[in-house]
Design brief:
Blueprint lengths: L1 E6 L2 E4 L4 E9 L6 E7 L6 E7 L4 E4 L7 E4 L7 E5 L8 E8 L11 E2 L3 E6 L1
Length: 122
């Protein structure tokens, strides 16, 4: 079992920055990939970014490349999502998730946090 807890969401204005955190506990060594997903109002859950802390590999959705940065040292440290130059279309509930291999696909991730709301006003 892996437990994930997100924090750091909030209400910001367009152009501002936020940093989300995801604290993992349990058998984290079984899930080397940590991902961030988001779900906006009336939309499906979508991939944002992922990191594989066994080899440092990172991956980003095209919509956030150059603005968001995912980081994490190892299974015992939080995973962060630094979000810069935020836009109103970034408004969503952001979820942290864990997977056994690199993927942008929701169903590959089998452990999920409860989500944290990010709202960007124009």
């Amino acid at each position: 079992q892996v437990q994930l807890v997100e924090s750091g969401g909030g209400l910001v204005q367009a152009g501002d920055s936020l940093r989300l955190s995801c604290a993992a506990s349990g058998r984290t060594f079984t899930r080397p990939v940590m991902g961030w997903f988001r779900q906006g109002p009336g939309k499906e859950r979508a991939f944002v970014a992922a990191i594989n802390w066994s080899n440092g590999y990172t991956d980003y959705a095209d919509s956030v490349k150059g603005r968001f940065t995912i980081s994490g040292e190892n299974a015992r440290e939080p995973v962060y999502l630094q979000m810069n130059s935020l836009k109103p279309e970034d408004t969503a509930v952001y979820y942290c998730a864990a997977a056994p291999r690199n993927s942008q696909v929701v169903r590959t991730y089998d452990y999920w946090g409860q989500g944290t709301q990010v709202t960007v006003s124009s």
